[in-house]
Amino acid sequence: MSPRAMSPVLVGRSAELAELEDALAAAPGAVLIGGDAGVGKTRLIREYARSVDGRARVLAGGCLELGSDGLPFAPFTTVLRDLVRDIGTDGVAGLVPRGDTGGLARLLPEFGEPESDAASGEERARLFEVMLTLLERLAERGPVVLVVEDAHWADRSTRDLLAFLIRNLGTAPILIVVTYRSDELHRSHPLRPLLAGLERVDRVRRAEIAPLTRADIAALVTELLGGTPPHGLVDRIAVRSEGNPLFIEALLDDDGTLASELPESLRDLLLAGVQRLPDETQDVLRDASGGGTRIEHALLSAVTGLGDGGLTRALRPAVAANVLVVDGDGYAFRHALIREVIHDDLLPGEHTRLHRRYAEALESDPGLVPSGRLWVELSHHWKSAHDSTWALAASWRAAADARKALAYAECLAMLSRVLELWDRVPDAAERIGADHVTVLEQAAAAADEAGEYDRGIKLVTAALREVEAVQERGGGHDPARVAMLLELRGRMRYQMARPGFVEDLRSAVAMLPADPPTALRARALSTLGNYVRLTPEIDEARNAAAEALAVARALGDPVTEAEALITQFCADVDYLGEEYLAEIDRTAMSTGDQRVLLRFHVIKSHFLEGAGRHEEAAAVAGRGIELAREYGVARTQGTSLSINTAEPLVSLGRWDEATAVLNQAMEQEPAVTTRTSLLVLSGWLALARGDLPTARKRLAGSREIMNLKMKWLKTQDYFTTLWLEANVALAEGRPEAGLDAVRPVLDHAGLPDDARYAWPALVTGASICAELGDAAADDLRRIEERAAGLKVLGPLQKVHRLTFAAEAARARGVLDFAAWEEAAAAWEALGNPYRRACALLNAARAALADGDHDAAAARLRTAAELADGLGAVPLGERVADLLRRTRSARGGESAAPLGLTPREYEVLRLVAEGRSNRDIAEALFISVKTASVHVSNILGKLDVANRGEAAATAHRLSLFAVPAERNGTPVG
To answer: What single-letter DSSP state applies at residue 331?
Structure first.
């Protein structure tokens, strides 16, 4: 039978089209579309693109199977190429900042040569920012739909860029559509975690294309046959195809019969359609299968040996049957599965010879493939041809190209291939001009840049073993090389929150002699000081930074000098030491070094927030983020600066802004070493707004990370996690558990930046002691002793001390109105509305205890306004409850029932709620003895024997409404 042309008709996908239309109307956003091979993802996208033609610009690119071996940014290169064809290079230049298309040169040669062969993480991040800006400015002219197909073949760089674009969509009408094969996603497939992470991002939808229903199968068969199908044909096809459109087409012969002679497996079904083509066409398709899903016409001509006319003639039947489709200057298999089964059907000898022909053709004429693809393709073909020598050499060159393109994961993949092939090539070192240790070093560096820290640690360890073995064989000692490897491993161990990072950094310094002084030793010392300051060994950090500073100044190395100054500052943060900060400012600015400048913005905003200068801190951190964007590192350093932006926003009561900053930072999936602060801030905000489940979830995440870090306690992470834990326990009505959380703060005095992070925890501890009364007397004594030993550095810590003194007095049964008034005024001066409201609440309690109801009501009204403006629900409820009771107490002129006085009536209400005498005393601001007298009077007037009978009488007479559930308020 003659082969049936595969129909481009789309059947049974109206719901999916409607979903895409809705997504475009709601843009910005993204749709992740999965489905088995052949289910119709590509047809859906083509139909959708046709339907929005004239309403939106569609930019489409596909991932190549070769991409998993190292070809970076393939779909984005295609998108750029098509855009250049449409609007020209000048048009593209007009869409990017300052018309600078230098970063795009790494993707497309039409934009010239990259600025440098050696690419940094900052340049890679800048490329990401340029692509985002390009799409946003293009969207100013009208909606943009970016389609990335076959993401299951996406290389690491493509996945990273795709995730960046989706996570950072602003307000422009951009819809990103990603398709992938669900059946390709095995458990360890790298796309799985990306999809899971993106699914949690707002405005991202995930859809799965299901097989066609029987009705849809009937409609498709009818369309393919051009008329009503014979009786029973649809049922038989439905059973055999299981609703897969590609299988349906392959099963249906031109005469309308089921191709029953075909084997039932997918391989045979797909090969059957190919085998119906002329022999010459099949031969060319076998050749084409070695080139990937898409192949250039010129390359296929060179591999087959056919001229243009002969190749066109041979391929025409395949195009007519829709086995191949014309794609620009080349061809693409209508479905990648077709290429796979053709390629897999090759005999071993045919497979080897075919890939050798490809490699030889590319060696003879590198222009047969687009720029940037040559060496990765040669690596693939020589390896498939089992020529280890040339595969190794090509992989080495491919790694260099990937590094130049900022594709560090692909660079690592190519270097891993070099290492895999090394033992098969006797003269490998001579072939690439580098020894095995150098390859390991470069692979480890690529792993560091790609965030593959576990792999990087293993590579460094292997390199160190080889260096040691060379030394043992008498091959010489290279301390500088060992030191750099140890420093690299130490940094990566820190990123993985693994023990041993400090030991590595110490060993790196020990490898380098102090005399004569060298820049390498100064940098190693600065790195050691920077990381060891995060441990209790603060003196070691001071000494390392001091030596690094001395060496840097002796050598005239301003970058290392600035790094050492920053490390010194962080080792002993003095929130009054603005002159020292100004010196760092001058030195950092003089270097012009991006890393130094960004680090300075981190420490300056940290200093300002710790000094209570919240507005300034937010502004500096914001400028740091802008600087990170300018340098193209908004994803990395910019995320770290998000912590320093969110914290002052929380202090200022700009909670919605802080939440937005925190959510965006969390969506970037930051490193474990920076995630704790984000979780704590987010958890505290949730708690302050009454969202206890979210607060618990954030606390659990922070505790999990801290369990990894217990070997090296970082004060900021450790104390703030304990502080959040104490507040959560207090809100849950578990004050004893809250004290358990505070106790480690008492046991770990002297950590770096101790006072800044200990004061809030101690304030919370004192507040809990006030809740527990005499039962917490020993804990209160220990908390006060810890507070007495703390330094008070700067205005913020002074206010914490004022608040602590007032809370400690309350825990001892003394409500000091003047102390709370002073604390409230101090918080107001710093611009912290939440903590001011908490202080006003306690000031009102003290005023009521003194009998000054007017003063109490005034302060409660102010606190209520502040709590309402913040959305601090638990605090607002406590304020409202006290304000209601304050008014009730003043309304005592009217008679109370049962012969009770207004005060006795109020005491009875609290007895009915099950309150103890101590609770009653605290609520009504009277002594416990006075409360006991009121209870005795009530029992006599009601003629009951005990409190329980008094409560039962009140409930029986419905004297009071059912009390609301108590809700704890986090302590500021």
So the answer is: E
Q: Is the previous residue joined to 28 through a cis bond, with omega within 30 degrees of 0?
A: yes
Amino acid symbol at 677: S
Give the range among 299-308, 497-506, 533-542 with minimum mean pLDDT. 533-542
Q: What does DSSP say about strands 29-35 and 324-327: parallel, antiparallel, or unpaired? A: unpaired
Does 342 have pLDDT greater than 50? yes
On whether the CB atoms of residues 631 and 594 are closer than 8 A, the answer is yes
* Best CA proximity match to 718, nearest among 686, 750, 693: 750
pLDDT of residue 72: 83
**Chain segment 461-517, per-residue pLDDT in tens:** 999 999 988 887 777 778 999 999 999 999 889 878 788 899 999 999 999 999 899
830 pLDDT above the threshold of 80: yes
Angle, vertex CA 711, rays to CA 705 and CA 717, nearest 5? 45
241 residue type, one letter: S
- Going by C-alpha positions, the residue among 761, 759, 809 that lies closest to residue 612 is 759
Exposed e or buried b for every residue in 90-120, given b needs 16+ CB within 10 A?
Answer: eebeebbeeeebbbbbbbbebbeebeeeebb
Answer yes or no: are the C-beta atoms of 70 and 410 closer than 8 Å: yes
Pair 492, 456: CB distance under 8 Å = yes
Summarize the confidence of residues 882-909 as an average pLDDT: 68
* 8 A C-beta contact, residue 133 and residue 164: no
* pLDDT (tens digit per residue) in 65-96: 764 455 688 899 989 999 998 898 888 888 88
Q: Is the model's pLDDT at 638 over the cut of 90? A: no
pLDDT at 461: 96
Backbone angles phi, psi at 492, to 5 degrees: -70, -35
Distance from chain centroid for Cα 594: 22
For the entire predicted model, the pTM comes to 0.67
CA 757 – CA 618 distance, rounded (Å): 19
H/E segment holding residue 178: strand 174-181
* 356 SS3 class: helix
Total H helices, total E strands in the chain? 46, 8
Q: In Å, how far are 68, 96, 202, 960 from 27, measured between CA atoms?
A: 30, 21, 11, 53
DSSP 8-state assignment for residue 4: P
User: How big is the CA angle at 440 (ends 438 and 442), to the nearest 5 degrees?
Assistant: 70
Average pLDDT of the chain to the nearest whole number: 86
| Beta-carbon count within 10 A of 899 CB | 10
Alpha-carbon distance of 554 to 533, in angstroms, equals 24
- Amino acid at position 615, single letter: E
DSSP 385: T
Residue 724 binned pLDDT confidence (cut-offs 50, 70, 90): very high
Cα–Cα distance list, 569 to 139, 140, 545, 675, 796 (Å): 45, 45, 9, 23, 18
Contacts 24+ apart (CB under 8 A), 849-852: 849/815, 849/817, 849/925, 849/926, 850/817, 850/925, 852/817
Confidence (pLDDT) at 381: 94
